[in-house]
User: Which sequence fits this backbone?
């Protein structure tokens, strides 16, 4: 036999084997229902309205289930908090539900070993432990995270009934803001900040688009205020202006028109000086702009200009975030309140009625006190639910060591986190997607939480466990602490006023809750005493004063929040919006500092504060002051699960002391030194370069030009104005569709919600840090973020969501040797997985670099694979994949409209892609470009529209609307009144 | 001679593998209950969609719940000892609250997104793809369900032959 003939045969054999491998060989079972559940049709999703509990914001969700399993979350459009939108963490709530490292049932810890127990035995042991703890006041402590609504009342009631003291701890509890508002407005709450209603928003450190209080709600509001949607929709008083005062360009600040980089701990002095310009007395009197300029590093003219803007427009100043987590935090928040008062914002854009519930007064101080009581042996039993203080508190507090002095420790956590692993009895709660409950995110908004599926593991709702314990402790014939049959009954009766009848209850469940107008809350404003005992001077930082040390900023990270999301691999792999890094804890330094230290991205340095020392890789970032360094919170777990182990925990560097007035933690309060270790680790950045290299990928236009831009000023291909006829050439003549997308760079905040939504919808795998190091991450949509360096040394950020452009003249298509990449009649650039042989020519030829190759068959550990969307094929090793424009949703929509009429065309807005659906700022619009009246078609022909890499003439179906910049120069910002065009 | 032998040896796995690939079957799999489509459909004139209830509104045709079976078999105990034996098996599953582990006969590869609904809407008869199930004692796959077979009909009927209709 000839060699060539042999190879031919071997080749054929190989092909045969491969075909066979794609099909499941052997019998598969078809398991029908015994009794079919009502309203469930196999193959059709069933949706449940509920409430997201990934952070205290409490967004309304619709939970999509297939065959009894939760597969995706989408925002509930009727919920007033988020109006149909969700953030990245909300999208990934499924990975907390299906966390493979969740506690699978009740456990007792014997000599460090977990011993499985049944619920009866666990409850007996808990009852016995509580009896043993005695009845001294405070000998039993129930420590929970922030709760609102019925569960909060239940915990209070139960604690009172069994004689336990209740302590509430939340790492981001907004203590200073609450205290400042108590002093100024008479109510310790986060006011209803009307960002949407303001024309000028100035933030003093609050990361309100990423992690602060209610980011989805604020994101939507910010886009209403700020996103340029065309000349015809310019607001009566001109488009909004947003200024961020903070030492580091956070994701939120990166969306500001102006970044005012005050020294850490002096942000509030800018507020006071602005109030001073506006004629405010009190503490503001002592801080004229000139004096503030010396201390803050912000020049006096800037402060005066900001004050002028604040006075001339409908304005709002936001306290909080990193600007309110230092030793002067309450003073800082009061200063911002004083600015709001001086500028007339109070009662207008700052409303105490309708306040948000996401805060716990003095949370951190109460933990210090609890630790003291534990250490002195007063606490005999500690029950911990929904909070992880061993991870969140600085080690200097001594909470972990004090646990040794508590004889009986119980955890209700559904994961074996750092605190749970120090307990002796583990009675895991359901996750919120399996639970009954409610949540009150703000005055008048009562959202319901209902189980969307049966519990994945042998867990039990904590309130039910407490009711059982009450019954056991009451003994035969005794009266239990709370007389309720079950937690559900308790909840149901708590709702009897609002939704008493079965019908009303069913309606409320279907809607996701009940929304009422906020009732007026009596407040006792006492501004005269607001500044009692407050020091408004620059805030002291511990540590060496010399030039070799840096102020350390420790801030919540978008994907990790307070660390609760750390065992979600998709969130771990999500690119940080600021550095684009993932899976680890880095330290951001200014590029000049990196040069001075002789380090480059990934070089590991030892970070030393007076309180501790940790090592972390450097990432240089031009958006931070040269005297400041910054680290993200949330990573560096020592327990919790397999995905949570990466990184270090920067709380180890923090002081244990309390902000004296508000009782909050000191996240910004130390100076650190950096010592290179000589080691290097991959920086794990999703993006290679921070700058555009003059390629004009993310384009911008000044506000003045935007107001005068003529339709068709942009070229497309060869500079001709885009027409519907031109677009029609890119799809089949018979087809009524040319699908396309328009993305507003002026609305995009870089929050990555679309990335997570896409991952959930399209079964996008995570690849792990070792493969991110080789740039093999798979996100079909990514947020590219580019830094624009300005003459004053500042940088401005541009975010641009990048995914397959579904080009009309796609470079990927002609190079595919097997026609796996082809253009269909509807203008989609289709990738046929079963044709693909993995040459990767298409990816090499793609100028947008949006094709992703499966170097391995990536898998999710069971039961995380339960979240797989059955409507989207799982891709295997050797296959190229990319954005499909959610073709499964396109097909489903066509299928639905054809029920009525086989020839029907899908109307505009009939369905949304996953990224569009979740975008908090409505930056993404999807639809049919062939329909001249569709939203996307109109946008594609708009004056601010361009195509990325237009000169290549790839004729993309993705259109981008330029970011609108230069809004703060007074002639534009102050005069874009009326229609906005008479500037 | 030697070369020919090698050729046969190398070719054998191809044939073996191909024949295992969900092609038409001479005999269907053995089911946990010897359910007879012929008795139900031909003798008792039941509609396919009585049991396969979601065929006209979902991608899945629907396998009847045990409750559906028991709707009749609470009363119908079988006319022959063989039938009675099989119906007792069914009642056993019902009494023990166990689902019946039916063995799948028709399937397409995982990279195919097939939906029944558009086919019933286009008035494609069940038998066109599933064969004359009404005559079968034991259901077997009659058609190949290969892509070429799908496309033949799609082209004849002027349905879409775009890849993205089924592959995504």
Assistant:
């Amino acid at each position: 036999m000839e060699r060539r003939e042999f190879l031919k045969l071997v080749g054929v054999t190989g092909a045969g084997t491969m075909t066979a491998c794609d099909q499941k060989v052997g019998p598969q079972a078809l398991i029908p229902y015994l009794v079919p559940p009502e309203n469930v049709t196999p193959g059709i999703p069933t949706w449940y309205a509920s409430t997201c509990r990934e952070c205290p914001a409490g967004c309304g969700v619709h939970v999509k289930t297939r065959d009894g399993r939760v597969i995706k979350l989408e925002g509930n459009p009727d919920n007033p908090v988020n109006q149909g939108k969700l953030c990245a963490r909300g999208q990934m709530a499924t990975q907390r539900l299906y966390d493979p490292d969740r506690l699978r049932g009740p456990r007792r810890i014997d000599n460090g070993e977990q011993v499985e127990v049944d619920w009866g035995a666990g409850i007996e042991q808990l009852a016995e432990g509580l009896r043993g703890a005695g009845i001294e006041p405070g000998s039993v402590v129930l420590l929970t995270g922030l709760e609102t609504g019925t569960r909060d009342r239940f915990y209070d009631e139960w604690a009172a009934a069994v004689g336990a003291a209740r302590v509430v701890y939340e790492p981001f509890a907004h203590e200073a803001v609450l205290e400042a508002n108590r002093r100024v407005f008479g109510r310790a709450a986060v006011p209803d900040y009307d960002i949407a209603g303001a024309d000028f928003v100035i933030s003093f450190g609050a990361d309100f688009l990423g992690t602060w209080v209610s980011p989805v709600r604020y994101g939507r509001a910010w886009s209403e205020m700020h996103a340029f949607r065309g000349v015809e929709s310019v607001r009566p008083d001109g488009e909004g202006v947003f200024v961020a005062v903070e030492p580091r360009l956070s994701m939120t600040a990166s969306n500001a028109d102006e970044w005012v980089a005050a020294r850490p701990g002096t942000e509030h002095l800018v507020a006071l000086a602005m109030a001073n310009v506006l004629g405010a007395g009190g503490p503001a009197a002592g801080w004229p702009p000139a004096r503030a300029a010396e201390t803050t590093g912000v020049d006096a003219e800037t402060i005066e200009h900001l004050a002028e803007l604040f006075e001339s427009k409908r304005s709002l100043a936001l306290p909080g975030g990193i600007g309110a987590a230092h030793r002067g935090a309450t003073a800082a928040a009061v200063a911002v309140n004083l600015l709001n008062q001086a500028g007339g914002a109070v009662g207008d854009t700052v409303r105490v009625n309708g306040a948000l519930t996401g805060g716990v007064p003095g949370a951190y101080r109460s933990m210090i006190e609890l630790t003291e009581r534990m250490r002195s042996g007063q606490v005999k039993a500690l029950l911990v639910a929904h909070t992880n203080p061993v991870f969140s508190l600085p080690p200097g507090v001594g909470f972990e060591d004090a646990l040794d002095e508590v004889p009986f420790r119980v955890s209700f956590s559904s994961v074996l986190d750092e605190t749970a692993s120090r307990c002796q009895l583990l009675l895991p709660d359901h996750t919120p997607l399996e639970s009954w409950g409610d949540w009150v995110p703000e005055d008048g908004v009562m959202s319901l939480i209902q189980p969307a599926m049966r519990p994945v593991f042998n867990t039990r709702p904590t309130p039910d466990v407490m009711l059982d314990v009450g019954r056991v402790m009451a003994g035969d014939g005794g009266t239990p602490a709370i007389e309720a049959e079950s937690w559900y009954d308790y909840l149901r009766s708590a709702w009897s006023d609002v939704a008493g009848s079965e019908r009303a209850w069913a309606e409320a469940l279907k809607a996701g809750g009940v929304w009422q107008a906020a009732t007026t809350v009596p407040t006792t404003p006492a501004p005269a005493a607001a500044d009692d005992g407050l020091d408004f001077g620059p805030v002291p930082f511990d540590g060496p004063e010399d030039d070799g040390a840096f102020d350390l900023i420790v801030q919540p990270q978008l994907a990790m929040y307070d660390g609760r999301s750390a065992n979600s691999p998709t969130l771990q792999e999500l690119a940080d919006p600021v550095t684009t890094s993932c899976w680890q804890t880095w330290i951001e330094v200014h590029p000049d500092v990196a040069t001075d230290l002789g380090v480059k991205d990934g070089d590991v340095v030892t970070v030393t504060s007076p309180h501790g020392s940790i090592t972390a890789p450097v990432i240089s970032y031009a958006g931070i002051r040269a005297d400041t360094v910054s680290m993200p919170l949330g990573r560096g777990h020592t327990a919790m699960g397999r995905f949570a182990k990466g990184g270090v925990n920067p709380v180890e560097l923090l002081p244990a002391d309390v902000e004296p007035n508000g009782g909050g933690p000191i996240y910004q309060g130390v100076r650190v030194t950096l010592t290179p270790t000589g080691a290097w680790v991959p920086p794990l950045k999703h993006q290679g370069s921070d700058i555009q290299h003059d390629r004009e990928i993310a384009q911008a236009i000044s506000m003045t030009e935007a107001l005068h831009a003529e339709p068709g000023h942009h070229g497309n291909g060869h500079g001709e104005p885009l027409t519907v006829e031109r677009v029609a050439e890119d799809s089949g003549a018979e087809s009524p569709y040319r699908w396309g997308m328009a993305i507003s760079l002026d609305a995009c905040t870089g929050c990555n919600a679309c990335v997570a939504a896409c991952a959930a919808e399209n079964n996008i795998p995570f690849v792990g840090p070792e493969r991110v190091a080789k740039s093999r991450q798979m996100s079909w949509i990514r947020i590219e973020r580019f830094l624009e360096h300005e003459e004053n040394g500042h940088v401005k950020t541009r975010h641009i969501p990048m995914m397959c452009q579904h080009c009309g003249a796609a470079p990927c298509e002609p190079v595919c040797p097997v026609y796996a990449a082809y253009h269909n009649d509807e203008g989609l650039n289709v990738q046929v997985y079963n044709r693909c042989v993995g040459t990767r020519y298409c990816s090499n030829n793609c100028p947008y670099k949006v094709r992703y190759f499966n170097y391995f068959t990536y898998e999710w550990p069971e039961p995380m694979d339960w979240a797989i969307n059955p409507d989207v094929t799982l891709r295997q090793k050797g296959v190229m994949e990319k954005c499909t424009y959610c073709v499964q949703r396109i097909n489903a929509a066509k299928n639905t409209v054809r029920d009525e009429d086989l020839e029907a065309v899908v109307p505009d807005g009939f369905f949304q892609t996953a990224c569009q659906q979740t975008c908090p700022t409505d930056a993404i619009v999807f639809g049919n470009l062939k329909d001249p009246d569709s939203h996307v078609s109109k946008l594609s022909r708009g004056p601010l529209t361009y195509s990325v890499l237009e000169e290549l003439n790839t004729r993309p179906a993705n259109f981008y609307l330029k970011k609108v910049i230069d809004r703060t120069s007074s002639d534009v910002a102050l005069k874009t009144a009326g229609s906005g065009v008479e500037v | 001679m030697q070369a020919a032998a090698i050729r046969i040896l190398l070719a054998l796995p191809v044939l073996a593998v191909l024949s295992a690939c969900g092609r038409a079957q001479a005999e269907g799999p053995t089911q946990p209950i010897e359910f007879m489509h012929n008795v139900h459909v031909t003798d008792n004139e039941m509609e396919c969609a009585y049991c396969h209830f979601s065929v006209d509104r979902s991608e899945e045709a629907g396998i009847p719940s045990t409750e559906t079976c028991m709707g009749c078999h609470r009363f119908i105990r079988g006319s022959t000892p063989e039938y009675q034996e099989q119906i007792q098996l069914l009642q056993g599953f019902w009494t023990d609250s166990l689902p019946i582990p039916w063995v799948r006969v028709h399937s397409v590869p995982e990279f195919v997104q097939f939906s029944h609904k558009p086919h019933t809407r286009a008035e494609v008869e069940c038998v066109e793809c599933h064969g004359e199930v009404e005559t079968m004692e034991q259901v077997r796959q009659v058609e190949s369900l290969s892509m070429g077979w799908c496309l033949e009909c799609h082209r004849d009927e002027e349905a879409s032959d775009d890849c993205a209709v089924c592959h995504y």
Remarks:
- The helical segments of chain B are 2-19, 37-43, 48-51, 66-73, 81-95, 116-121, 126-130, 147-156.
- The radius of gyration of chain B is 20 Å.
- Confidence is low (pLDDT under 50) at residues 4-21 of chain B.
- Strands of chain B lie at 102-103.
